[in-house]
Amino acid sequence: MKSNFYSKLSLLLLLTGTLFLSCSKEELPQDKLIGEWTIYSIAETEGETIIWKELEDKLVDLIPEYSCLDFTASATENLITTSYVFIDVNGRGCLSPVISVYTWQVDPESGIYSFIQGSNAIKYRITFSNSDNRMVWNDQTSGAITIWDRVVTSNEDASE
User: Fold this and answer.
1) CATH code of domain 35-159
2) Radius of gyration for the chain, computed over Cα atoms and rounded to the nearest angstrom
3) Where in the chain are the domains?
4) What is the H or E stretch that residue 160 is in?
């Protein structure tokens, strides 16, 4: 009778432990999008590809104050922020940054990323290469392609 009690108690503890462990929150791997990014190139569907660094170098050679030209993206688990600093064509310098903030989500079945800002939703197919340090955004509506390089800090370089 004691062994029957202990068998039932062991079974109950085993089931309780299994239930408890299976209910714990599953840790999902971090999305490759998360991080700091700088623009590499932009290409419209029927236009030429613009290599950002080449454009910046040409403009800075022309007017040194244009060195403030910048185009970056920063992604966290919940938000993606893009920041564009364009030149002031009426002066010798740059305009204030244009900052856009979007929530984002990825469809696990299609792999399509949705960037949402109010009622505006932009859908991208995003692919990664170069050890996940380069990403390509392919706008699913316009077909425009934007290529980004991950910003790697010197601390990350030293640890590798």
Assistant:
1) 2.40.128.280
2) 24
3) 35-159
4) none
